[in-house]
Structure prediction request, 246 residues.
Amino acid sequence: MKKEILRFRDVKLVYHTLRGETIAVENLTFSLKEGEFIAVIGPSGCGKTTLLSLAAGLLPPSDGEVLNDGLSFGYMLQKDELFPWRTIEKNIFLPLEIKKINTAENRERVKLLAEKYGLSEFLHSYPSQLSGGMRQRAALIRTLATNPDVLLLDEPFSALDYQTRLNVTEDVSQIIRSERKTALLITHDISEAISLADRVLVLSARPATVRFAHELDFGDVVNPLKRREERNFSAWFERLWRELNG
Ligand SMILES: Nc1ncnc2c1ncn2[C@@H]1O[C@H](COP(=O)(O)OP(=O)(O)O)[C@@H](O)[C@H]1O
Ligand SMILES: [Mg+2]
Prediction:
C-alpha cells in the first residue's frame, strides 16, 4: 500500500467579499497517495481551483483540515506563463532563482531534464519561437525544476487546440509517469481524466464536494492514446458523463 501524503478532511472554504459570502467547497474529503495520479472533474465554477489552493496551503480552510505537512508543490496552469523576454533555459531556471537554489548542480539537473524530454534545441529560443505544445512542455519542466513532491495541474491543456492537446497530454503523462511524480489534475475534459489518471473524483456543483470517486481499471496501460483504444474507455466516459451531468 502506498502511503497517503495529502489528506482533506471535511474541508470547507468560504470566500468573504463585500457582496457577501461564497461557500466554494464544503465537506470535501479525499486523500492522495504517493505516486498516484488523481484527476478531478466538476462543473465550471464549482471550486476546483480553490481545491488546489487549499491543497498547496495557499488558502487556509474555514473548517476541517488539510494535511499536507512537509510537502512541496509545483503548479502548472492553463496558460504556460513563460516570460517572453527570457529564453527557454532562463525560464526553466527561474524557480531555482526564486527559491535561491540556483546552483550549478541544480541548473545541470534541470537542463538534463529538458534535454531528456526533447527541449535541447530550444534552450536558447524564446517562448514565441515555440509551438503551444512545446511551450507547455517547457512549462512542465519549469514546474519540475524544484523537484516538488506533488504537481498541481489546473486545466493545463484547455487553451490548446485539440490535436496539440492530445500530443501534450502524451508528453505530460510520460514525463509525470517516468519521473514518478504524484499529481492532482483539474480538468473539465472527461476523456482527458480517463486517459491520464489512476483515480477520478467527480465534484458536485458549488459548493464542491466529492460526489463520486473511481479507481480506473486500465491495469498497466498508462499511455493516454492506448487507453483511448481500450474496451472500457467508452463505458467510463458514459458513466462519468452521467455523473457529472446528473
Ligand atoms: N478570491 C475569491 N474571492 C471571492 N470569490 C471567489 C474567489 N475565488 C473564487 N471565488 C468564487 O468561488 C467559486 C469557486 O471558484 P473556483 O475555485 O475558481 O472554481 P473553478 O475552478 O471550479 O471554476 C466561484 O463561485 C468563484 O466566483
Ligand atoms: Mg478554475
Remarks:
- The beta strands are 4-17, 20-33, 37-41, 63-67, 73-76, 150-154, 182-186, 199-203, 210-215.
